[in-house]
Write a structure and sequence with these properties.
This protein has 161 residues and is α+β, with helices and mostly antiparallel strands. It has helices spanning 2-15, 19-41; strands at residues 47-55, 62-71, 78-89, 92-108, 111-120, 126-132, 138-140, 155-159. It is globular, with a radius of gyration of 28 Å. InterPro entries: Cu-R_lipoprotein_NlpE. Pfam families: NlpE (PF04170).
């Protein structure tokens, strides 16, 4: 009986020696975490941010607006694609697509802390501007980059991809 007791105690001592396996396992997890961080920090590819909304229209039911903004850290000139569909016109729904580059501007005349997106035409003149709020929503600005004061909805919401 003493022999079995001794064997059980020895077996228990050996099985308690598993922390070396645990620490090895933890080391592997840390390595995996470092690799994941490197992948997250590797911003060599472009992604597109998609915004959508229904903007007011004076002579139609509304303008379904889809704005795609390229998010690429390695490019100085980032691209956009703007699709505006005028709903319920006399000629039916009419779609217009424009493409170009955009710039990000920090600070507006009446809002020094604002971040704005300017869509530019071929000659780098702004054609539309949006102010981005703290939730990521884009608010259409007027031609002088002022907030549009209205009860109507002039916003585009970020759409999950």
């Amino acid at each position: 009986m003493k022999k079995w007791t001794y064997i059980l105690i020895l077996a228990g001592a050996i099985s308690c020696d598993s922390p070396t396996q645990e620490s090895r396992y933890e080391g592997e997890n840390e390595e995996e975490m470092e690799n994941r961080e490197e992948l997250v920090l590797d911003n060599t590819f472009s992604t597109w941010m998609n915004y959508e909304g229904l903007l007011p229209c004076e002579d139609c039911e509304g303008i379904r607006t889809v704005l795609k903004l390229e998010n690429s850290p390695n490019k100085k000139e980032r691209e956009y694609e703007l699709t505006e569909t005028y709903l319920g016109t006399e000629d039916g729904d009419r779609e217009f697509v424009s493409k170009g580059i955009y710039e990000v501007v920090y600070g507006l005349e009446n809002d020094p802390g604002a971040m704005a997106i300017r869509l530019l035409d071929e000659s780098s003149a702004p054609i539309k501007s949006f102010r981005q709020d703290e939730f990521g929503t884009l608010h259409l600005l007027d031609s002088e980059e002022q907030a549009i004061v209205s009860d109507l909805n002039y916003t585009l919401e970020l759409v999950e991809q």
